[in-house]
Please model this.
Amino acid sequence: MKKSHIIALGIIAVAIAIIISTVGDASTYVGFSEAEQVAKEGSTKSMHVVGSLKKDASGNFAGMVYEPSVDPNHFEFVMVDSLNYESKVVYNQPKPTDLDKSEKLVVVGKMDLANKCFKADQILLKCPSKYNNNELKAEEPAKAVSMK
Model:
């Protein structure tokens, strides 16, 4: 066999190994109920859950606890997933800025059965886009003031 064939086979083998390792580590999008079921089966695989912050009757965010003076790296909130199943989420990092303004969010982590909460490693925010505005507003140009 030629050296070029051996090198090509080696490169193909490395590429296949990389593909297999990334597929094995990929996390999946689930709801809280499925994340709980996976945790009961003993899996420690990371999951993505899409949802929104839970609001009470007056429109305030329910269950949000963040006291930076006590512990700046502990943030709790209640999230409702896309299947209307709610769960407490614990994030051991500071509260993300603009979390209150986000339409939807994605939490990445694992369900903690002992504490009956979802332990988030990451929080990804989907903020309202300024480009989704159906109504374009034209600003009036500033009028020049003449000094006489």
The two ends are 92 Å apart (CA to CA). The chain has a mean pLDDT of 81. Residues 17 and 45 are 20 Å apart (CA to CA).
